[in-house]
Design goal:
The protein has 151 residues and is mainly alpha-helical. It has six helices and no strands.
Length: 151
């Protein structure tokens, strides 16, 4: 159960720091509430998500680890109390397009700085892409000061 728990927590954390969290939060809250008051669980999860994002942004590993530990404990309690919860969680992940708790979550972080970038792609799986370029010089970016001096 430990490996499955670790994977499920990793999947939840990956979900919390993705754009999909907005759509998934209510469903995750209902899963944790187990028929109880999902509103208060929803609020707790939203606070955890905001703290996790802030901790990652400031590279506060301790705060991020505390949030992950809290999710792990909460998930462990649900799975121990309800033997069917594991399958329910797997189906929830599958419906959210996460492929279930058996597939790893990949977090992509790109930093683009300096110079002129013509294309930036961020994602996990890209297939069937075709790029057409020219051997000519790169386009010159618009510079209002230079344009005014040449007029």
């Amino acid at each position: 159960m430990e490996a499955e728990l670790a994977t499920a927590v990793s999947t939840l954390v990956g979900l919390m720091v993705s754009d999909a969290w907005i759509q998934a939060k209510g469903r995750v809250a209902r899963f944790f509430a187990r028929g109880g008051d999902a509103t208060s669980v929803d609020e707790e999860l939203q606070l955890s998500q905001e703290e996790l994002v802030a901790a990652r942004a400031t590279e506060d590993e301790g705060a991020a680890a505390d949030i992950v530990a809290g999710l792990r404990l909460r998930l462990r309690r649900v799975l121990q109390a309800d033997p069917g919860a594991g399958e329910e969680l797997r189906l929830l992940f599958e419906e959210l397009g996460l492929g279930g708790a058996n597939e790893p979550v990949v977090t992509v972080q790109n930093t683009v700085s300096g110079g002129v970038q013509h294309m930036v792609f961020q994602g996990q799986n890209f297939t069937g892409l075709t790029f057409h370029g020219s051997d000519g010089p790169a386009p010159v970016p618009h510079d209002p000061l230079r344009d005014a001096s040449q007029a």
